[in-house]
Amino acid sequence: MNLKRLFPALLSILFFGMMACKQQSKPAKNMADNLMAMADEPRGKDNVAYQWAYIALEGTALDTDRFRPRPTVTSRYLGLIFTAMFDAWTRFDEKAHPLYLKGVDRFPENKRTLKNKEIAVSYAAFRALNEYYYSDSTLFKQKMIALGLDPENQSRDASTPEGVGNLAADMVINARKNDGSNQYGEVEGSNGQPYYDYTNYSPVNDIDKNIDLNRWQPKYFIDEEGNKYNPGCLTPYWQKVKPLLLETADQFRPGPPPMVGSEQLEKEVQEVIDLQANLTPENKALVEFMRDGPKSVQQAGHWLKFAQDVSERDNHTLDQDVKMYFLVESVAMDAFISCWDSKMYYDYARPYALVHDYYQDKVIKAWGGPDKGMVEMKGKDWRPYSPDAFLCPPFPSYVSGHSTISGGCAEALRLFTGDDHFGVEVELVPGALTEPNNLDDPVILKFPTFTETAEMAGISRVMGGYHIQADNVAGLELGRQVARYHYKKYLNLIGENTKEGKTVGQ
């Protein structure tokens, strides 16, 4: 509905109705004011929630450059940042409930203005961003100043939007301390080292010797100076992090992957080889686009970008964006926790090791590495379509994280919008992130629906040589299960009754 076209007609009705009564009533005046505000409200990339999402992506990209990719960690950051924004916003909505914000009353109707929402949401975002991406506090401060807000305002006065925003961030931050993420190195035995592995995980297979082909084997990375190093296993305890909306990490744990000796695994390893040997320019571009390169925002950030595409496409208001980002990023956060539950429970092998063992001295066609293109080689020399600096993800394979998060976030967007249509296109140069001296002509990737986009993300990981098909299929389904469960919880939080007729929160 075009409110700018509708507004003059409605205002005329109000005017003549008020003239007939010979006196302007207060409710009529409020209605006119609200219609005017709705007609002029910033939408899409101009709304404040969208702007903070952009800043959150900047923080995530800078975090990646500073600490290398850590998708589990940044998914939690983004999930909690948008939870703080959502909680602050609920106090200006007529029926929504916060997740962590307690003891703060809903603002009266005449105080539920766009300006107050913008202030509250901004302070919540600012405080949460400073907590999680603390190295980039100057960036966040500059954004506050650009919005005409005082970054030094520490008010916790719940009768003001500034206070509500600060309180919302406080309560999210405090509630999530000791949630198993070990953000502060607080878990016993961590010696104050953030994100220290307090489970003392040790791979069955040594980086130089594979003794159990069904299990994960670490692989060497090569740094910028050309030195080999063992990256270890990324956050091998992440399944112990308390979920945001799920009941438990293993709530939707999938069944086991195919084992060595099975016909299914033999076929799926062959599929990995065949897909790589026949990579088209479009395939390469898809692998690189979904993998990301420098300043990556990982999967949670990638789907936040896609959500922003929806905001621009559908001309979203602040209200719509706050709700959408919360839903999508809460799904991403819990999907990572669920994904890691499966990864660490099954501790499953990646194609890198499987191809080497299955094909050993057999000659195959495969990618020879940067500047080499497709060549004939022995199976034991096969490698993923990936640069030396990030040759293979440093954690077990089953299920695929890209598939899980993409399946979940795509389903969240489908449920939120009520339609599977996406309609985004991107132009890319194949090889730019993997073999910069062997570039193809630019190609256009089309993402017609949310579901197809998730499936393209999933199959890109098989094409790239990071996963077999079983990792992908089970990951997509796991993500979708998380999203469907989350959506019911989300409806409760925004005050919409589900079939069970229950509500959550205050």
TrEMBL record:
Phylogenetic classification of the source organism: Bacteria, Pseudomonadati, Bacteroidota, Flavobacteriia, Flavobacteriales
DUF6851 domain segment(s): 80-218
Protein name: PAP2 superfamily protein
Pfam family, one: VCPO_2nd
Gene source species: Arenibacter troitsensis
Span of the signal peptide: 1-20
Keywords: Signal
Ranges where the Vanadium-dependent haloperoxidase NapH1-like second helical-bundle domain occurs: 326-483
